[in-house]
Prior knowledge:
- By secondary structure, the protein is of the alpha+beta class.
- Helix 11 packs across helix 12 (466-473).
Amino acid sequence: MKSVIIGTAGHIDHGKTALVKALTGIDADRLEEEKRRGITIDIGFAHLDLALPGGDTLRLGFVDVPGHERFVRNMLAGVGGIDLVLLVIAADESIKPQTREHFDICRLLSVRRGITVLTKSDLVDRETLEVVRLEVEEFLRNSFLDSARSPIVPVSALTGAGLDELRQALIKVAAEFPSKDSTALARLPIDRVFTMKGFGAVVTGTLVSGTILKEDELEVFPTGRRARVRGVQVHGQQVDQATAGQRTALNLVGVSRQELGRGMALAPPSTFHSTSRIDVTLSLLASAKPLKDRARVHLHAYTSETSATASLYDKKQVSPGETALAQLRLAEPTLLLPGDRFIMRQFSPVLTIGGGVVLDASPIPRMPGLDGFLQILAGGDPQSILRTRIARRNHNGICLSQLIAESGWPGKVIEADLAEPVRQGRVLRLGDRFVDAPALEGLKLFMTSTVAGFHQENPLVAGIGKEQLRERVEASGEVFAAAMEILVREKKLAADGEIVHLPGRGVVMKDEETESKKIIESAIASAGLKVPALKDVLAGLKVDKARAQKIVTLLLRDKVLVKISEDLVFHRDALVDLRKRMTSEKARSPKIDVARFKDLAGVSRKYAIPLLEYLDREHVTRRVGDERVIL
């Protein structure tokens, strides 16, 4: 069964609700106030099944919207997910202000198909009806509802005239509409929330993509709450699943009615992220006033509504009828994805001034080359879009889950689109991460030059530590390890344990430096645990203070010497021997105080306290009060 969502549009009292009732038998006005006042205040819903020529069934879901200017915001909440529109124009009044505004909204939302319906045809004679038809044809010329491509059908909800013709037109237009992708990631903007006794919270909306099954777990955006689907209804019937393009009602468990509201959305958990900033292409209506940089607007997307600040890129203002790139900074976080369309309304007085399409819902602050990046997002093919998203992350790349969240595309689709660039080596895949090949080459050059610079600055040091190098080049652990492996394989860098250096590059010492190194090591080693102050050892050397300190750094890096306090450095052999003595002492008593440790080590308190603190850090001992427990 093919499902198509149809929205009504038009001026107040032009017969939208009556038309829907005449077609479906369902009164979409559900509120008591609507029935009392005789006008539609909030969005209403109805459905109709029509037989297709091949024997299949076409299910039409109708979203009936208010026509009064005061309720345009409610109209916008309903029209966001429609597939085609019924533009309703009363034959006895012709084109009115909300006819124009609703029509502009449909164009801005990129609705591509529809039917124009001249209602109340029974109230005018044939000549008047023909005059109205000519006016409407002129109004719609060169639009998606141009009469050359889209029918204009006169009807009377009262007498039933023209309804059969309208049904046939609906079958023809809806049959041409491509089915939505039920394998995409599910997203349901919420347009209604209520409670059913014995069931709990129920939400409704038009499922704009994917499939939702009974017992699915979903995330509520933007709150992040999780909910389980206890029941699914499509057009009032219990089903096991709802698919893209269907009017859907979900009975949710795990959230209360108070935690849900129109404008929120449901999607698979831990997949997407709400956003407060979106990069967009926006267009102003020809009838709008110029939009200045940093102007405040009302933003409507699907069922959500919030205020936003429009920060224009490379412009001070957008002129009427003009298109521009901008960043919209939202007052409230919202779930939006690339390709989503939106409507802008002037902040005051509130009227529709334009709309546009989301290009990026995960903008990076002060990103270089932003203009070119957005142009690719606006007009590129999926492979180009993915490659540019990967490239903008520089050498750190982006993991698959981030690409899913940024693009809104399923993981399998992304992997299929990137298969060729990966095979050609233009994109590298490191586990779950994709990295731009030129960016990785840049990282390799940066790493090599950083190591070379380190050698130049530290001629007496064997090399730079891996972690220190990774921090300097600002690379993630996964990407750094891959780049390091390639550089070692290409013999551009070498690694000895945790030390990285240029191939064949060792510590080159002059004669006096080699002699000083021996003197330092000998002085510390021969002293056992009663080591002299390091400054006293260095004072007797022939080399200057700076070179002496570099020699000590080299001995510490090679772990020949171990520094345990600011001026106490011990030879590793002395500390190894101390550990052995502590192990033997544990056999006699598992606890040791400072006095007993002084006797055991043969040192004064000057050495005993720093040594005990070192043993604590090394987990050889653990302090308990005034004693240590030997571990």
